[in-house]
Amino acid sequence: MKKSAWLPAVIAPVVVAGAIAAPALANAASTPLAGANPTAADVIASVAKSSGAQYSGKLSQTSDLGLPELPTGSGGSSLEGNASDALSLLTASHTARVYVDGATKQRVQVTEQLAEQDLIRNGSDVWTWDSKERQATHVTLPADTAKSMQDGTTTPADIAKQAIDAIRPSTTVSKPTTTKVAGQSAWQITLTPKSSGTLVGSVQLAVDKQTGLPLRAAIEAKGQSDPAFQVRFTSLSYGAPASRLFDFTPPSGAEVTTKDLSDAADHAGAGKGDRSTSHDGAPTLTGKDWSTIAELPAGTADQSGLGDDASTLLNQLTKAVDGGRAIQTSLVSVYLTDDGRVLAGAVPVSSLVAAAK
After folding, report:
1. What's the pLDDT score for residue 156?
2. What are the tens digits of pLDDT across the range 168-218?
3. pLDDT tens-digit profile of 137-181?
4. 3-state secondary structure string, the chain?
5. pLDDT, tens only, 77-91
6. Quick check: 339 pLDDT over 60?
7. For 37-63, how does the pLDDT look when each residue is reduced to its tens digit (9 = 90+)?
8. In Å, what is the CA distance from 346 to each residue of 101, 167, 221, 308?
9. Averaged pLDDT score across all residues of the chain
10. Burial of 86 by CB count in 10 Å (0-12 exposed, 13-18 middle, 19+ buried)?
């Protein structure tokens, strides 16, 4: 995966999901949190209020997974360069500018080494842009998506209570505590897995007391005091950003790809029980809750075409285990089987090896 692909790959699904869910939540949004002792469900329900928020801010992503920092695009084979670039996403810090004008206008802008990557949504149009590769992608959201999600009568409070009830069998949910993020007063809730079979120690979410905007999300690994992964606002200013920020026209000579999401719903599905079935190369899921393992089909990790440089890099990052090679970070493990499958999860390598048999 090229480094330039990280922005649309990671953030685009969030924007698209927001386009689907925000209208329904906004229509049923509750009033701002009252009193000094909200429940965890109250805090989660308040997030619905932020769908119409207008703000500009700076986001910071940091990782501490116990991986070595590698030079990006370091030459050698393309596979080696892409692997190094991908690893840099897990080891290096990244920052992004965020501009939001309600539920239908958002822009995320990443600038690194004189190159810019953007994700822009303006109504039903979603663009991604990579200035270094001079590549743009245009997605048109289905016109009836928001409408179809507004027909229910479920309120944010109902959804929040159902979410809390669903996770409590596997998770301890803390009472909200007061914190401050980017100068804003926030409620923080902590989710702690009850399972001993996961690498996750806890997940923390901080939500602005006044607006319901999520300000910080952090995942701590077991036995690690600092977050293994964190995304948070380092600065935040409320108010409508300039409208020009949500307009985008591909520069002359840019490579433009268009995508149609009109039939996306036809391909969506949900598995029940402990195992879901894979379709069209999608991962197969085994286990449940915090110990879920994702498995990609045979051929995904075919190493027969790797050059010497890429093979050397792979051997440096992984260790030989029964039936393949694996790497375990403080938060997630990845197992490459000899028959070309890839298994991953927030579990020890031994759990992946057992699941592959």
Report:
1. 63
2. 899 999 999 999 999 999 999 999 999 899 999 999 999 999 999 999 999
3. 999 988 655 444 344 445 666 766 776 777 889 999 999 999 999
4. CCHHHHHHHHHHHHHHHHHHHHHHHHHCCCCCCCCCCCCHHHHHHHHHHHHHCEEEEEEEEEECCCCCCCCCCCCCCHHHHHHHHHHHHHHCCEEEEEEEECCCEEEEEEEECCEEEEEEEECCEEEEEECCCCEEEEEECCCCHHHHCCCCCCCHHHHHHHHHHHHCCCEEECCCEEEEECCEEEEEEEEEECCCCCCEEEEEEEEECCCCCEEEEEEEECCCCCCCEEEEEEEEEECCCCHHHHCCCCCCCCEEEEEECCCHHHHCCCCCCCEECCCCCCCEEECCHHHCEEEECCCCCCCCCCCHHHHHHHHHHCEEECCEEEEECCCCEEEEECCCCEEEECCCHHHHHHHHC
5. 444 444 444 455 555
6. yes
7. 899 989 988 888 788 899 999 999 888
8. 35, 17, 9, 30
9. 77
10. middle
The tokens for 23 are 């209208």
Please report, as a single letter, which amino acid is at residue 51.
S
